Amino acid sequence: MEIDRLEWPAFHWNNQVIKIRRTKYFEPKTETSIRDVLVDPEVMSVFRGYAARATSNFVIEGMTMSLKGAMSDIYRAQAVFERLSAWLRRHGVTACKPLHELRKEFGSMVNRKHGLSAAKDLLGHADIGTTAGYYIDKPHQATSGLGPLLATKSRGRKIVEFNQTTKTAGRSPGASKAPGSPLGLRRR
User: Fold this and answer.
1) How far, CA to CA in Å, does 62 sit from each of 5, 14, 15, 41, 115?
2) pTM, entire model
């Protein structure tokens, strides 16, 4: 988790940016993980308050980290993550990995507001398929929206009306159809 090894010097306060880079404690998974994350001014202000009270160089307080543990899979702030996971579960997050669910929600929010490409970039994915397949909430099923047009009335009549009296069996091609209408539709 990037946040586990994120240090305060990554915050560029005047530009509203958090720069995700290699450090002596953090090695990104891929080259696309190295990126600038633009942050809302209000969120940056909250972080500024925490930075003022920080007792270490790390954003999330946790056990001290030696250079030897830089590539370790052990989280420095494991106790913090466990408390946050428990809080998320008490508040309705049922996913197997509640913290990762926050990351997915972040990606979905960015996608809804700015599009899939922006979500991919902010999440640091190399492949937009990863973003679309695993990090973005599934869109609702949609229709064309033409139904209401067919039901719209003009002077008490539908704009397009099916000819329900015409029988298709036993008639010659084109019989009883409105000219130019392959479906037997009549215009009014």
Assistant:
1) 10, 27, 27, 26, 35
2) 0.64
